[in-house]
Design brief:
Blueprint lengths: L2 H14 L4 E18 L9 E16 L3 E12 L9 E11 L3 E9 L14 H6 L2 E10 L7 E10 L8 E11 L4 E12 L9 E16 L1 E11 L2 E3 L6 E2 L2 E11 L2 E10 L9 E3 L4 E2 H4 L14 E13 L4 E11 L4 E21 L6
Antiparallel strand pairs: 1-2, 1-20, 2-3, 3-4, 4-5, 5-6, 6-7, 7-8, 8-9, 9-10, 10-11, 10-12, 11-14, 12-13, 14-15, 15-18, 16-17, 18-19, 19-20
């Protein structure tokens, strides 16, 4: 279906919808990311350079200022793949309901719809870029009096049971309570059901819970100091059917001013990815790591009981938030060596609403 036909379909829908007012939404997101990883000396992490661009044009209808139906397409190009016009083309289509306190979405939507603070133990930066769409549902409540106080629940269905694909789905939840003095408390939770495929009934449960407490304050610079506890119970039913319960603590310190940011994350604890090197698919000889059981940063699999991540760089938005710039160096120490990462990312987020008529509401 062409973009012209999609627009015509949405206009017909708008004309048939009995609402106070309808508006046509046209917009696009654009992101290009350069990510150079020098991890050769580290025990975990693959040295490589990732350089890609993603364009997501969308069109939709909004009615009663609360409802949206959006259709779009995600176009991804990995630089250097000269034998393909596009590296990947994937659909976007979802319904969203939004009020001052509540947001709900259903369909295939962008990861940016999530508000929860899911650290790199949950999703590495490459996962958030290349797996940026969620397929399922999202619901969130935000406090009226405290905008930074919220709770959300989401379901991301990542794979359908077949000969070529595992059945996989992930339940995500996050919440936060913020006080007037800058103190806050919260949690993030991932429940990942990593099931089997035809010919391989291997089923694995992988959970990660991260409660935290922190303090945001200003003293010329803007500070954010947080303590976190990570608990990762998991069971490979075809390995030994035993629950593994690794855990650890992390101290996060961030300092910001004029867009310049220095952030340090120090993790002390056990290997949070103990099934990483076990074979998950004997027929293909694939390990759990190769099949994607863990979406978090691979350095959390360290057996040295320490992982330190330091970010030094610049992050800022311009033109009323429509243009974002990020550039910096990341230093990873997993107890064996120091690895470095250079990141440059530019993002554009544009949206325009066009009024296409008003009608009386006949709904009851």
């Amino acid at each position: 279906m062409t973009l012209k036909k999609i627009a015509l379909l949405l206009l017909c829908l708008a004309g048939a919808t009995t609402t106070y007012a309808q508006e046509l939404i046209a917009g696009t997101d654009f992101v290009t990311r350069f990510d150079n990883r020098e991890y050769a000396a580290n025990e975990f992490g693959e040295p490589q350079t990732l350089f890609s661009a993603r364009l997501t044009p969308c069109i939709g209808v909004e009615w009663q200022e609360k409802n949206r139906l959006i259709v779009g397409v995600e176009l991804l190009q990995n630089f250097g793949e000269k034998n393909r016009f596009l590296s990947d083309v994937r659909p976007i289509f979802y319904y969203r309901f939004e009020t001052k306190n509540v947001r709900a979405a259903a369909g295939i939507f962008d990861r940016k719809e999530l508000a929860g603070d899911y650290s790199t133990a949950f999703f590495s930066d490459s996962t958030t870029f290349y797996h940026n769409r969620l397929s399922g549902f999202l619901g969130r409540y935000v406090s009226t009096s405290r905008p930074k106080t919220y709770v959300e629940l989401a379901l991301d269905w990542e794979g359908m049971y077949s000969q070529a694909s595992r059945e996989k789905f992930r339940i995500l939840s996050a919440g936060r309570y913020s006080t007037d003095k800058g103190f806050y408390f919260g949690y993030a939770l991932s429940v990942f059901h990593f099931a089997g495929r035809e010919g391989n009934k291997n089923v694995t449960d992988n959970l990660l819970l991260e409660p935290y407490a922190g303090w945001e304050f200003s003293a010329f610079f803007d500070f954010d100091v947080r303590t976190n506890f990570l608990f990762a119970p998991q069971r490979g039913r075809s390995v030994d059917n035993a629950w593994r319960t690794p855990c650890g603590g992390r101290l996060d310190i961030a300092i910001r001013k004029w867009g310049v940011k220095i952030e340090n994350n120090l993790y002390l604890g056990e290997n949070l990815q103990p099934l990483r090197n076990y074979v998950s698919d004997p027929g293909a000889g694939l390990t759990y790591a190769q099949e994607g059981l863990y979406a978090g940063e691979s350095f959390y699999a360290t057996n040295k009981h320490v992982y330190n991540r330091t970010w030094v760089g610049y992050e800022r938005t311009f033109f009323k938030g429509t243009l974002g710039v990020e550039a910096g160096m990341v230093f990873h120490c997993d107890g064996t060596a120091m690895g470095t990462q250079q990141v440059v990312q530019l993002s554009v987020d544009l949206e325009r609403l066009f009024n296409i008529g008003t009608k009386k509401n006949n709904l009851r």
